């Protein structure tokens, strides 16, 4: 099982980023997938989740209306489109799958002017 995140970077407040998580080694299309983030000095928190077929979505209140989770089961990839970014969105963003080892290596998102 491997999860590889990409797409992070430095962006100004109000900007956008699109994160990708490429999955391999398991039946991606049969599992719900999630994005978490961890800010410096804080616990890792759930940001968004998508069901196996993409029909059920969950968002943390702090990102509702700004972030969109999606997936492409043909490409074994889950995405997180992040718009109207705020400094408090800064952190390492992790892809999560319900199969071990569960986590990718993370991708850093920094929102700063």
What does it look like?
The structure is a single chain. The protein has 113 residues and is mostly beta strands. Helices cover 0% and strands 48% of the residues. Strands 2-10-9-4-5-6 form a 6-stranded mixed beta sheet, with no helix packed on it. Strands 1-3-8-7 form a 4-stranded antiparallel beta sheet, with no helix packed on it. A hairpin with a 6-residue loop joins strand 5 and strand 6. The model has no long low-confidence stretch (mean pLDDT 97).
In short:
It is built from no helices and ten strands. The protein is mostly beta strands and 113 residues long.
Q: Quick check: average pLDDT? A: 97
How far apart the termini lie comes to 37 Å
Rg of Cα set: 13 Å
Helix and strand composition category: mainly beta
Question: Unreliable segments (pLDDT under 50, ≥5 consecutive)?
Answer: none
Helix content: under 10%
Counted by DSSP, the helix tally is 0
- Tell me the β content: over 45%
The H-and-E topology, N to C, reads as EEEEEEEEEE
Shape: globular
Number of DSSP strand runs: 10
Largest sheet: 6 strands, mixed
Protein traits:
113 residues, six-stranded mixed beta sheet, single chain, four-stranded antiparallel beta sheet, mainly beta
């Amino acid at each position: 099982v491997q999860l590889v995140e990409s797409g992070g970077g430095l962006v100004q407040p109000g900007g956008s980023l699109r994160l990708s998580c490429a999955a391999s080694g398991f039946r991606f299309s049969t599992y719900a997938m999630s994005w978490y983030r961890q800010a410096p000095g804080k616990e890792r928190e759930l940001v968004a989740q998508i069901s196996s077929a993409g029909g059920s979505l969950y968002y943390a209140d702090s990102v509702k209306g700004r972030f969109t989770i999606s997936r492409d089961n043909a490409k074994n990839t889950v995405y997180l489109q992040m718009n109207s970014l705020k400094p408090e969105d800064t952190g390492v963003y992790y892809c999560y799958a319900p199969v071990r080892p569960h986590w990718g290596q993370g991708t850093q998102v920094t929102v700063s002017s």
